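Section handout 9: paired folding examples.
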Amino acid sequence: MSEHALLFTLGFSLLAVGAVLLGYGVGQLARRFGVSPWVIGLVVVPLAAAAPVFAVTVNTALQQRDNFTLGMILGSTVVNVGFALGFVSLLRPLTGSSKVVSASISTLLVGVLLFLFVCRDNSVSRIDGVILLVGFVLAVAYLVWVARGETEETKAPFTHWNLQRWPLWIAVPLAIAGLAALVGGASYVVPEAVELTRMQPRGKTHLFGSVAVVLASSLALIWVAELAARNRHGDLAIGTVVGASLCNLLLLPAVAALIAPFGVANVTLMNDIPATALLVYLLLVPSLNGLQVSRSEGAVLLAASVAYLGWQIWR
């Protein structure tokens, strides 16, 4: 078991490093092609934070491991909203004012209902994947439209990640190295998680899907959100978490279903997805409170995510 645990640890370490390298590499490439720092901070950072989960889920979809695929989709959302945002706001209360961040929360609340809708027949087909993909594109279009009305003062924190322009001979290798680390990390995480699952009582594949998310994706996401919070960029911290969650609930299952349609067990449809939706709807509190996430609210989010994972273990 120690060998499998070691390789599993190596895998999620590669995923965490790959997310950072890919984010910086792609961000620098975008700058070289004239993309504004505001757009890079708004789009590239959340996508880079979601990249580890994306890499692992694509791997599970290719191997047609339905339980792991669902575990990654639902677990990533729970970890992002509950663990990452809760943990960071527990350390440093967050305050935001961005219209696009507020709109992204509303979009996420609709997104989780759309995901529940496509799962209603105990499967996510390629047609469902197209529906989710269209939903993601419409969500992005809506957020871009909202972003046009942001003030320069609100946009400023989103440029926090943009360093001075690097030459292509640095940016390209960084992006390639990040992508390679993500692919390599996923190739270790999935098979080793399967082996570890076989050693567990009752074969809890859903549990290791969640554990893979906690260990593989939360490291990069928490680092990004905590660094933003430390610099008093509440909009960036909240926006990164919500944006990554939106990718996980719409884009991620869309791509997975287009690769290989997957089934949804009754217990997942009746228990796991509603529980995930309930946790996501806790974001109504900061949304209605002017994007304020206090320590007490962070404690509730963190406790909810820990309770979800504990429920997965003991049920």
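Moving on to protein 2 of 2.
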Amino acid sequence: MLKTSLIKLMALLSVSFIYFTTHAQLNLPRTPSPGASVSQTIGISTISVSYSRPSVKGREVWGSLVPYGYNVQGFGLGNSAPWRAGANENTVIKFSNDAKVEGQAVPAGSYGLTFVINQDNTGEVILSKDYKSWGSFFYDPQRDQMRAKIQLRDVAFTEMLTYDFMNLTKTSAELVLNWEKKQFPVKIEFDVDDIVIKNAEQELKGATGFNPASFTNAANYALTNKVDYAEALTWIDHALANTKSFTNYNIKSGLLRAMDKPADADKAMNDGIPLANEGELNAYGYQLLTDGQKEKAIEIFILNTQKNPKSANVWDSLGEAYALKGDKKNAIINFKKSLSMNPPAPVKANSEKYLRQLGAM
């Protein structure tokens, strides 16, 4: 009986040892190709790449370590596969939102990132839906999400394989793989404005919608980026229902003007002007100057001197508006008025600069 129990115990221990050696692996530093990750935000969308970093170590890379064209895999698989663009597990690229990769639509999600290189510095980038595979050993072209031709570049030597982002714009970036003396560029784009507006629509229906400033910010984004004016108008009206301010009326006026409703735009601005503080009036005056509305700008700056007669800055701004209009006499009067009030250094410097230009100093 004792012998039978001992045999059962030894069998149990043997099974346990096999289980733990199979499933409980010690976390140790990975060599010689350590893991790495890189990410980039474009608008409110994120691209991230997780990969392992092999080193050149004096080896011949292109055409040898990394074969030209497709590589015939070993391990009895016999399939042709692109380069895994790293080492160890699959190199994985993840998009938080729908994107375009080399002009082709790619839904949000994770993909295996692979490349093909040819002897003439041409190549291909391939995104595979099988992003959990080990490298590209089990590559199946039927699982491609997209593939596109790319043109490689010759660059300075890079010992460890490195991914980076460059040539950033509002809506795009180039993901580049640098290794040895080659660079693999891949252009990635997002429809940033559409993503931002759709995200705002969702967020404003949640907890964010209890903050009136969120509606102001969303409407201002639409106005600034010239998108979805009708939706933005409902947002700014919601903000005004909670907070009547010059900022909100100014945004509403801008939206109505962009929608070719000048009379309604003027009314919204007239409602907002009495609520404006000194800085807001001044900023609006300069906005009018930028738009070429010098007479209207002078009206706003005069109003600001009436509301804030002890501010040297508003007299300086009024002088600047007259100077830009070509009214030398009134420009000099207002610049001297500003200097008589012991203005801050930047205001003093601006008034003196104009007075010299006008021959009054």
